[in-house]
Structures are given as C-alpha cells and as structure tokens.
Amino acid sequence: MRAQLKTMLELQDSMNTKVNENWREQNFAWYRAIWVECAELMDHFGWKWWKKQVPDVEQVRLELIDIWHFGLSILLTKFSTQALMIDELEQGLKSTSGIQAIADDEMFRELLETFAEETIASKSFSVSTFAKLLTAADMSVDQLYCGYVGKNVLNFFRQDHGYKDGSYKKLWSGREDNEHLVEAVAELDANSATFADDLYQALLERYQNA
C-alpha cells in the first residue's frame, strides 16, 4: 500500500504543478471542491423519496476517486514530508472496522453527510471517514489506486494534447477517451512500478492510431 500511496501523492503533486507551478502558495479551497463532489455523489446514489432511484454504484466510485484527488492535494500542503503524508493515509485507510459494503441506503447517505460536515467544519480531509465510504461502496484500496492513476494519467494526457486550447480530440475511433482508458488499464499490470508511464504510452498509441 505504501508504494501505491507514494505514487499517487507524486502524481497529484505533478498534476497540480502542471496547472499552476506555485499551487501550494495559492491557498486553493480544496475542501470546497470535496463537499461539492459529495453533493454530486449523493445525486448518483439517490436521495429523492418521491421517485424511484437505484444507486449508480460505478458513478459513486468515480466520485470517490475525484474526492481523493482533492484530499491528496490537502495533505500535500498539510505535511512537511512525504513519509508523514503516507503514514496519515495508511493509518486512515486501515480504520474501517465495523463498516460493511452498502446494505442500508440511508446509512450510506448519513455517512456521506458526516464526511461532508467534517470537511466543511475542518476545511480539511478526513482520511478515516473517507475510508469508511470506500468500504461502504465496496471499493478496495487497489481499486482506488487503479481508478486514481487512470484518471490522473488521462488528465495529463489531455493537457499535453491540447485540452486547454480546445484542440484535443475526446473521441478516438468513434469512442470517448474514457472508454479507451478502461481498456488500456485492463491490459496492463497495475502492480508494476511503471504502471503510470505504461498507461500514458498505451493511450498515446491509441490516440495516434485513431
């Protein structure tokens, strides 16, 4: 797990730096991005009692991955060393005793609201409560890692190929880049130390051959 956490912290730092070289000094409201994502997650899970809703678990997991990006950004500004960040993450991710996968919809909603409340009150990121959400959504740390690295690498790829100036083509051979990402991830060894680089190269080959 520590190797995965190290990779994710480094990727997040690189992505933030690509967007703004001095991102640490900007005091961005990362916590605000988190609670807004919580609201989007709630919509995907469903909360309206006046209509039939079925939780979209895959979208819930994608929203958790987005929240993780912002949580890592907070920790990158909070701690002075990478080792301290990894300790905080590892300890928090292991604190899920008593939590089971989604069985009671209202329990999940209340857990999500607790996480959002903690985020707003502290303007920070509770790794332990986030870990409970992962467990409740039946999402392992390995799944979080694969999903996070995939999204991060795709974001880098988009930036490198004209996303900012509008020249990037999101459709490759008639399919969205997200679809190609899923296939590319499935073809690679996520445990490899070069997973992120291998994934970028796989996307590049698909993009150039589109």
TrEMBL record:
EC code(s) of this entry: 3.6.1.23
Broadest EC class assigned to this enzyme: hydrolase
GO terms for MF: dUTP diphosphatase activity
InterPro entries in alphabetical order: dUTPase/dCTP_pyrophosphatase
UniProt xrefs under Pfam families: dUTPase_2 (PF08761)
Record CDD domains: NTP-PPase_dUTPase (cd11527)
Keywords of the record: Hydrolase
Name of the protein this chain belongs to: dUTP diphosphatase
Native species: Simiduia curdlanivorans
